[in-house]
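Please review this one:
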Amino acid sequence: MKENFYILKNGWLVRKHNTIYFICKKAKDENLGFMKEVDEERQEIELEKIEESPEYDKRIIPVERILSIYILGRVSLTSGVLSFLSKHEIPVHFFGYYGQYEGSYYPREKYLSGYLHIRQAEHYLDKEKRMELARQFVAGSAQNILRNLENYLNEGVDLYLEIESIRKLIPQIKEEKEMGKLMATEGFIRNLYYSTFDKIMGGRFVFDSRSRRPPQNPLNAMISFGNSLLYSTIITQIYHTQLDPTISYLHEPTERRFSLALDISEIFKPFLVDRVIFKLVNKRMIGEEHFRYELNSCLLNDSGKRLFIKEWNDRLNTTIKHRELRRKVSYQRLIYLECLKLIKHLTGVKKYRPFVIWW
């Protein structure tokens, strides 16, 4: 099974023949859990010299076993590297200083379908067809949110009022005829959900309210970072289908973003991103020492990112027995299957129904 490859250190991606290496300077203090800043000056890296230099670490990237690459450090790479990654159909996702998603290197699309592209556009241009899909994305999100809350209600957390409020709103989702009202309902449900975070996590971190760009506190920092990882994970899965990632239904398609990934992410946020956060906090795996504060922002530091990514990747690789396929599939594979369900809807094979967790 192919896996994701995460780069948190600063360094270089270099190609030599049919092999790609990640090269970085060693930390002066070997006890540090992260690499110190690499030199800023531009310089050509001669691989032969580095092989003999004790100042550098060199690691082979096994491209034949990699699904996608996530770059969270300052990494230089050449066109030769990108060409080789493209040949192996490996997307590269870039993250900025605050841990936010910045962009992707999207290899040339292999699975092209003019017919599906036209069907996607038709479903966007037809108001009723677009609203039908948009309602499904919001309903799937609400049902997965409910499942999270019901789990903690069963564990003794007083969430009865919030759960009942969300339950009453779900039938309203199915009746909405205007996108603005649907988005307002979605926002109200999510605000109700966020209001429960302090209860779920026992006040270990104060949530207060949702803040972005930059996040203001540890919980917001984890939500933003997790959402960025999810967004790029969904982009990778869409790449391996015939879907056009720029045509969406709940979120308005705009320039410079893969808005279909935003639609699909609504379904998976509650049981991928949020459950990782709940585990890290409630099991006391993460603490104030994993964050840094700068001006009006709070960010995961290097050790915090490493911890979050480990739990995130473990969760993506977790498997369940699929009720319809009757075989084990990973959580990451569920995203790909969701894309296939959407294709069946667009091509008139089967109506789309969002994935809803039962555990």
